[in-house]
Amino acid sequence: MFCCAFYSAFCRRMRLNPSHALVTGTYDYAGYAEVGPANKVGKANNMFGSTILDVAIAIVFIYLLVSLVISAINEFIAALLKSRAKNLSKGIQQLLQDRSEDGWVAQLYAHPLIKGLSAPDSKPSYIPSRTFALVLLDLITPATADGARTLADLKTGMANLPQPLQRTLTTLLDESQYDVQRLKKQIEIWFNNGMDRASGWYKRKTQWIQFFLGLSLVILLNIDSVHIGRTLFAVNSPLRASLVESAKSFVTQPGGENRPIKDVVETISTVSLPIGWTELPKRDQWLTMILGWLITAFAVSLGAPFWFDLLNKFVNIRASGKAPEEEPKSPKEVPVPKEPGG
Question: CA within 20 to 30 Å of 227's CA: 142, 144, 181, 250, which one?
Fold first, then answer.
């Protein structure tokens, strides 16, 4: 009796027809047409999948905005400390295997072709590979207006080099088949490979800097990924819909992840983000909040290009939607074989 009464009350609460449900296994919900159990599960799965995609777009959009702010702060600090120029100098020192104050690296930076790449009393943050090759060859065997640099002059100049650099250039000369013009190309390739390694050092260092900058910012502004996820997963969340629309508008605008910081700040000011401090958390909430901070800081350290590409993919998936079902086509008519000789 209790079970029957409970079932009838549940059906009245859900506006269902209990007798119809028991007999047919289907429900007439809120006055709509009869819907089978399989269809109801399919619709629920579609709604759940759409919610997950919208939440993913909203979270990635938040990570992108924070990453752009952190990247701008990091670039400002790098320009202030001249980090790129220092990293380039370190890479060239490693390449030439010379760490002395007045050695080959100092002579290279004192050359007019290199000094012209930066402001007075400062080092350049980028050197083209061809410029490096020309300067290095000019330091080994200075060019003259009388004629072209010969192989004999080059060998004489290489004899005065430090042993590690001499061995390196001898190997490159052998690879170029003792041709001076080919040697320039080999030096350019050697320089580019060395700068790729230096770029890897800089990127790893930058990623750690962005992690700690991001951790400082997320604590200051309370950008808690766990709280953001819970807020966005709320049923019929208007915030989630607003962030999705803002994300779609953001990825279609020109500039991509290289957008000026003022545009990013303007976007943040016009979007309601589930961040900030309203009250101090309770004792049992600190662990979850710290976990959310660490997740956000790690996400920000991946960089704005990563999150912009991911956001673009998610927005494209959402825009494509589900492909419409094709209507069955009638089979083609089978051709009747012709009579022999027809």
Answer: 250
Cα 331–334–339 angle (5° rounding)? 175
For residue 30, what is the DSSP state?
Answer: G
pLDDT value at residue 34 = 40
User: Per the structure block, which two tokens stand in for 247?
Assistant: 């994300």
Q: What is the DSSP letter of 274?
A: S
Answer yes or no: is pLDDT of 160 > 80.
Answer: yes
Render pLDDT for 95-148 as a digit per residue (tens, 0 to 9).
Answer: 888 877 678 888 899 999 998 898 888 889 899 999 999 999 988 888 776 667
Asked whether 74 and 213 are in contact (CB, 8 A), the reply is: yes
Torsion angle, alpha carbons of 16, 19, 21, 27, to 10: -30
> Mean pLDDT across the stretch 244-250?
86
CB 21 within 8 A of CB 27: yes
Rounded CA separation 68/247 (Å): 14
Euclidean distance between CA atoms 237 and 59, whole angstroms: 14
Q: Would the pLDDT of 32 be above 80?
A: no
* pLDDT 10s digits, 60-94: 999 999 999 999 999 899 888 888 999 999 999 88
d(CA 173, CA 209): 41
Distance of CA 329 to the CA centre of its chain: 45
Q: How far apart are the first and last CA of the chain?
A: 83
Domains of the chain by residue range:
56-79+206-319, 101-197
Residue corresponding to tokens 């200075």: 142
> By CB neighbour count within 10 A (0-12 exposed, 13-18 middle, 19+ buried), where does 225 fall?
buried
Assess contact for 65 and 267: CB atoms under 8 A. yes
d(CA 210, CA 298): 9
In 3-state terms, what secondary structure has residue 161? coil
Inter-residue contact 308 to 64 (CB < 8 Å): yes
